[in-house]
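Lecture 7, part B: from sequences to assemblies.

Below are the input chains for today's worked example.
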Amino acid sequence: MWGAELSSGDVFSLKGWLGRGMIHRSMGMGNSGQPVNCEAQGPDPAEVSGLLRAWGDGDRAALDRLTPIVYDELRRLARHYMRGERPGHSLQTTALVNEAYMRLVDYKNMQWQNRAHFFAVASQLMRRILVDHARRHNLKRGGGVQHVSLEETAMVGDDRAADLVALDDAMDALARIDPRKVRVVEMRFFGGLSVEETAEVLKVSPVTVMRDWSTAKAWLYRELTGGTTDGT
Amino acid sequence: MEPDRWKQIDSLLQSALERPPEAREAFLRQACGGDEALQSEVRSLLRAQERAGGFLESPAIEGER
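Predicted structure of the full complex, as structure tokens:
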């Protein structure tokens, strides 16, 4: 159910989906026609919570309605974080997604499984938001990605943009071989989900998630450091 | 890559990782049964796994100022 519905096909369809949020919204997402992402009046938490539960019960249309709402909120929050408008906050994806969750969802009445599912869709969107941001950053700095630095301190500073773009490409390549492993990377790296939460969403055991994670890490690391089958 | 081939590679990598580092090469030689390409593929992933360290272990954008 969940695992099948949240396959890598969704990852790719999201690329085509981005930018169509306004259309979704004009088709009835916003209540009373107000902008959904304005500071004072956000989407109705009861409505968002209902969509999340319906999606958890297998209602695919609920995911389609949920996605633009979550995307708008994440993008808005991400802009604040990236501009440094949140001094004193620890800047972690997990914190950002959690803030979106608290704002959008009637979280006091949700179960941890609902939260995991929210983080799962948010992780795919965070991947898109961060990678799009990184691609624009690269363009501004004038040109293609020449150098990929993958020290343990990667994903920090100027090299981070190049790294994220390269990582995104490598994840696309891995998705052609093993889509589930890419979902694991998305949820853990871009969504900050725990092993147990990832397992819940994918409907596999935590051991399987840990194995997927270690194989995916090895494969992506090799891809990004230019290693070949021969290990050279 | 053929799905069956990838499953085999994945499974061998995980089996190797369950063994102590010094026992992995011998395990691979025996488990791959002379399939040099298979052995080489799993070995390179093993090396990547050993070097990967903290790669991807901190969620994205952590640490950005």
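Note for the exam: The mean pLDDT of chain B is 89. Keep this in mind when comparing with the next example.
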